[in-house]
Amino acid sequence: MICKTRQTKALGLLLFTLLLLYGMWASIIYGYVDTDIKTAVNAFTNYNGSNEHIIIKTVRLPRSLIAAAVGASLAVAGAILQVLTKNPLASPSLLGINAGASFFIVCSVSVFSIQSLQAFTWIAFLGAAVTACLVFIIASIGREGLTPIKLTLAGVAIGAVFSSFTQGLLVLNEALLDEVLFWLSGSVQGRKLEMLTSVLPYLIIAWLGAAIMAGKLNILLLGDDVSRGLGQRTQLVKGILVLIVILLAGSSVAVAGPIGFVGIIVPHVARAFVGLDYRWVLPYSAVLGGILLLAADIGARYILMPQEVPVGVMTAVIGTPFFIYIARKGGIAK
């Protein structure tokens, strides 16, 4: 643990927040069409309709805000899931959220010929929510109720089923792949600000809920028996936390598609800075998650310029070595 006192933790959070703001600013400035600080400022204070100003206001700004919000949400969702499942490799995809959202998108295009990106937002959110609720219900069946191993197994099983259905639809209609590939790869490119604002109320509710439940997560770390002994209604707390994960991950997948590894990597980094107090782990995860996705998105613009690599590919490249390290290290996430 690097930050041992409240003062150093607060200072670290402030510094990372400033880095997040710089990353958002860099996301607005840098890309195929490079601009400078003066041009970016003028785009908001003295808009003249030039090509640079249009790009900054209609492309770069939404992209920056979406990357920060999605990165923060995925990281917080991953931190919560790693406690719920006691699995250091847990992330939103563990609940089958990515697979469920992907299936609903592919099905909507294949069966109903839907093409609207705005419609994809709500369809993906519905798919993510339905899948996570289904996993939660299945994992809660039985005398012991919701347990980490049952939640993990239910998520893996349901995710595998939906992934198989998705692959089956794509095999039957290969032309369909071209229509949904941009979404399945996970990206913040080309997303409109309206897509973020449409799910922002759910994100705000989930962010506030996570902050309120941070203390409950600390008690859950002690184990279910100790948690019940301290008077905590364990099953109710777990249900609320799963709902928060559904809102965070469902909204993120709806806007940016299935972006992996952010929810795995960031909570471990946050715990390395502040230890196991989730009153600090969650805000650190939010800020670090935004920084990671912004950095990955900026890097994705330059690798194959003028073409861009989907940010989901970049996070996979960054996250795979970390995933292997955590898997070899083993242990239970706390």
TrEMBL record:
SUPFAM superfamilies membership: ABC transporter involved in vitamin B12 uptake, BtuC (SSF81345)
Gene3D superfamilies linked: ABC transporter involved in vitamin B12 uptake, BtuC (1.10.3470.10)
Keywords: Cell membrane, Membrane, Transmembrane, Transmembrane helix, Transport
Cell compartments where the protein resides: Cell membrane
Positions of transmembrane segments: 65-84, 96-114, 120-139, 151-172, 199-219, 240-266, 278-296, 308-327
Protein family per UniProt: Belongs to the binding-protein-dependent transport system permease family. FecCD subfamily.
Protein's UniProt keywords contain Iron: no
Record's protein name: FecCD family ABC transporter permease
Provenance organism: Ectobacillus funiculus
Domain of life according to the entry: Bacteria
Membrane topology: Multi-pass membrane protein
InterPro entries according to UniProt: ABC_BtuC-like, ABC_transptr_permease_BtuC
